[in-house]
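Lecture 7 notes: from sequence to structure.

We start with a single chain of 189 residues. Read the sequence below before looking at the structure.
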Amino acid sequence: MSKKSPIIKDGELTLRLLRFRDRDIWNQVRRVNQEWLNPWEATRPEVENQGALPTYFEMIHFQNQEAKAGRSYSFGLWLSDGVENRFIGQITLGGIVMGAYRGGYIGYWVDQRFANRGYTTRAVRALTDYAFSELNLHRIEINLRPENEASRKVAEKAGYIYEGLRPRYLHINGDWRDHSTFVKENIKI
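Now the structure, written as tokens:
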């Protein structure tokens, strides 16, 4: 991948890497949506000497390093009305492994005020297209909680196929939770 930061567009929806200067709007949208996102949010299991969660600046610094290394890309979702861009969520293509596997996973969240309008599905499709055409990945997974009907619909509408259940897969909202795995493969490579 080139050193230039990727920008992915789909009509009025833009995916661009989060920046340090996005902190205030990111924090504001996260704060407004805290109750809406809590049931689906990754948490850390209790482990000694783990330390505090990273600050926004530490998170962006880490994400920038991961993007430069080609291991993960975390994009803000921006909706333009022609006058201003509004931050409405985040989507990440992470866990990228090349070699014989050539895959990764997509995770996302959206501002509740913009849910059920198709923006998340469009973002997943656009990021999947980018991963297949620009990064030449072969396989992408979306892992979601079985009871998260809205997220399941996003995965299915974006063309992902249910592959199976992963018991106690991720630590979410304070405990190890089962996840349904949806997969899309790049049949061109």
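The mean pLDDT is 92. Keep this in mind for problem set 3.
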